[in-house]
Amino acid sequence: xxxxxxxxxxxxxxxxxxxxxxxxxxxxxxxxxxxxxxxxxxxxxxxxxxxxxxxxxxxxxxxxxxxxxxxxxxxxxxxxxxxxxxxxxxxxxxxxxxxxxxxxxxxxxxxxxxxxxxxxxxxxxxxxxxxxxxxxxxxxxxxxxxxxxxxxxxxxxxxxxxxxxxxxxxxxxxxxxxxxxxxxxxxxxxxxxxxxxxxxxxxxxxxxxxxxxxxxxxxxx
Length: 221
Description:
Blueprint: E1 4-7, H1 17-30, H2 37-40, H3 48-59, H4 65-83, H5 95-104, E2 108-112, H6 118-125, E3 133-135, H7 148-157, E4 164-168, H8 171-179, E5 183-187, E6 198-200, H9 208-220
Parallel strand pairs: 1-2, 1-4, 2-3, 4-5, 5-6
Helix pairs in contact: 1-4, 3-4
């Protein structure tokens, strides 16, 4: 039976994609060219250095490896400056109401994010104290789809993987949950998150009792 929830951060609780775009755009503008939101779609799920290579190629600019590191650092500083200004207004629809239900049921909650800026973001949106455990990029050595982040979350909460339910918006995140031996709730599109046990477009109107009944019933099949 499910006794603990593990939440991914980006795309489930907040959406920081716009801030990554703005930070890259600022860097590109400083180099004398621009990138569009459409172009930015190529960068989603791509590492920082690979994203930088794509942007530099787009701008027709060649730099040394040393300069690349400096540019990547500049982008991250731009990003941190933007996310440091995040507020409760940035919490995605339905999250607040769903967390009220979670607390009423006394379900333990952990964050399972590869972001090293997770605590900064949670503090900005006023949700740092809502989590019983926070596993972020500073505590893990392997990114998703490796199960490390969720296994550590379960361990810190004191539950077995089978007792944990993961909330994820990414294919790699759902795979990470499955490899950890956990059930997964997909937040997004069913035709994309095909391996998730249940999929919702967002957390708006999701009833925790209905959700737990559905997932626990599947555990009995």
